[in-house]
């Protein structure tokens, strides 16, 4: 598949000192979805194979406010720890991916419906006429190519994400699990992700339905 490249005029780099050490940041405006995204880079992944990589979908409630009903915040933190410990890797933070791409307002609608009706994360979206997963990983593929990453070890439990990235031209050589602790607040969500969306979550104790 021929893919668009990032326009250098829409990319800016700097260093970012964090509690986990200093990362190189690559902020970019994607030529297709027009959102501004961010990659955090540790070490020097250019020209390397099997680069430890997390492609993280924005979740304001989980990432910023530590919501317990999803595991996004735990996964973001754990992925950054893993990459920082390893010394080389990339975290791509994709904006516009709220609620698997439906946006924050509709995500809040699905959450209210889940709480009021008992529907799970999949059925609450379809009941509202919303797509179950509208995310596009093109921006992640474009920034990984910009960084000259040759292939990745992808931090995810989601085989679909690995396939989608591969389809976008980024070879995913293996998947590295990112198992957030199951809690009473997120058990329903994790179970639905396992049973309805095919995520690999072997640590859940609830039997498969
Ligand atoms: Zn979340």
UniProtKB/TrEMBL annotation:
<keyword id="KW-0378">Hydrolase</keyword>
<dbReference type="InterPro" id="IPR000926">
    <property type="entry name" value="RibA"/>
</dbReference>
<comment type="function">
    <text>Catalyzes the conversion of GTP to 2,5-diamino-6-ribosylamino-4(3H)-pyrimidinone 5'-phosphate (DARP), formate and pyrophosphate.</text>
</comment>
<feature type="binding site">
    <location>
        <begin position="54"/>
        <end position="58"/>
    </location>
    <ligand>
        <name>GTP</name>
    </ligand>
</feature>
<feature type="binding site">
    <location>
        <position position="75"/>
    </location>
    <ligand>
        <name>GTP</name>
    </ligand>
</feature>
<keyword id="KW-0342">GTP-binding</keyword>
<feature type="binding site">
    <location>
        <position position="156"/>
    </location>
    <ligand>
        <name>GTP</name>
    </ligand>
</feature>
<dbReference type="InterPro" id="IPR036144">
    <property type="entry name" value="RibA-like_sf"/>
</dbReference>
<feature type="binding site">
    <location>
        <position position="59"/>
    </location>
    <ligand>
        <name>Zn(2+)</name>
    </ligand>
</feature>
<feature type="binding site">
    <location>
        <position position="121"/>
    </location>
    <ligand>
        <name>GTP</name>
    </ligand>
</feature>
<keyword id="KW-0862">Zinc</keyword>
<feature type="active site" description="Nucleophile">
    <location>
        <position position="135"/>
    </location>
</feature>
<feature type="binding site">
    <location>
        <position position="161"/>
    </location>
    <ligand>
        <name>GTP</name>
    </ligand>
</feature>
<feature type="binding site">
    <location>
        <begin position="98"/>
        <end position="100"/>
    </location>
    <ligand>
        <name>GTP</name>
    </ligand>
</feature>
<keyword id="KW-0479">Metal-binding</keyword>
<feature type="active site" description="Proton acceptor">
    <location>
        <position position="133"/>
    </location>
</feature>
<protein>
    <recommendedName>
        <fullName>GTP cyclohydrolase-2</fullName>
        <ecNumber>3.5.4.25</ecNumber>
    </recommendedName>
</protein>
<comment type="similarity">
    <text>Belongs to the GTP cyclohydrolase II family.</text>
</comment>
<feature type="domain" description="GTP cyclohydrolase II">
    <location>
        <begin position="11"/>
        <end position="177"/>
    </location>
</feature>
<dbReference type="InterPro" id="IPR032677">
    <property type="entry name" value="GTP_cyclohydro_II"/>
</dbReference>
<keyword id="KW-0686">Riboflavin biosynthesis</keyword>
<keyword id="KW-0547">Nucleotide-binding</keyword>
<comment type="pathway">
    <text>Cofactor biosynthesis; riboflavin biosynthesis; 5-amino-6-(D-ribitylamino)uracil from GTP: step 1/4.</text>
</comment>
<dbReference type="Pfam" id="PF00925">
    <property type="entry name" value="GTP_cyclohydro2"/>
</dbReference>
<feature type="binding site">
    <location>
        <position position="72"/>
    </location>
    <ligand>
        <name>Zn(2+)</name>
    </ligand>
</feature>
<feature type="binding site">
    <location>
        <position position="70"/>
    </location>
    <ligand>
        <name>Zn(2+)</name>
    </ligand>
</feature>
């Amino acid at each position: 598949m021929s893919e668009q490249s990032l326009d250098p005029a829409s990319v800016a780099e700097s260093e970012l000192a964090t509690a986990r050490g200093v990362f190189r940041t690559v902020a970019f405006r994607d030529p297709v979805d027009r959102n501004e995204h961010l990659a955090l880079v540790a070490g020097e992944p250019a020209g390397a194979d099997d680069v430890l990589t997390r492609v993280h979908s924005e979740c304001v409630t989980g990432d910023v406010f530590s919501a317990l009903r999803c595991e996004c915040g735990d996964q973001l933190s754990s992925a950054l720890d893993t990459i920082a410990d390893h010394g080389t890797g990339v975290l791509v933070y994709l904006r516009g991916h709220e609620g698997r791409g439906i946006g924050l307002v509709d995500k809040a609608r699905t959450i209210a419906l889940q709480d009021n009706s008992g529907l799970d994360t999949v059925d609450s979206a379809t009941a509202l006429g919303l797509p179950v997963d509208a995310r596009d990983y093109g921006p992640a593929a474009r920034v990984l190519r910009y960084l000259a990453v040759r292939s990745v070890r992808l931090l995810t439990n989601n085989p679909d994400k690995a396939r989608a990235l591969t389809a976008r031209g980024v070879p995913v050589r293996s998947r590295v699990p990112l198992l957030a602790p199951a809690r009473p607040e997120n058990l329903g969500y994790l179970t639905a992700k396992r049973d309805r969306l095919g995520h690999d979550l072997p640590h859940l104790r609830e039997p498969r339905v």
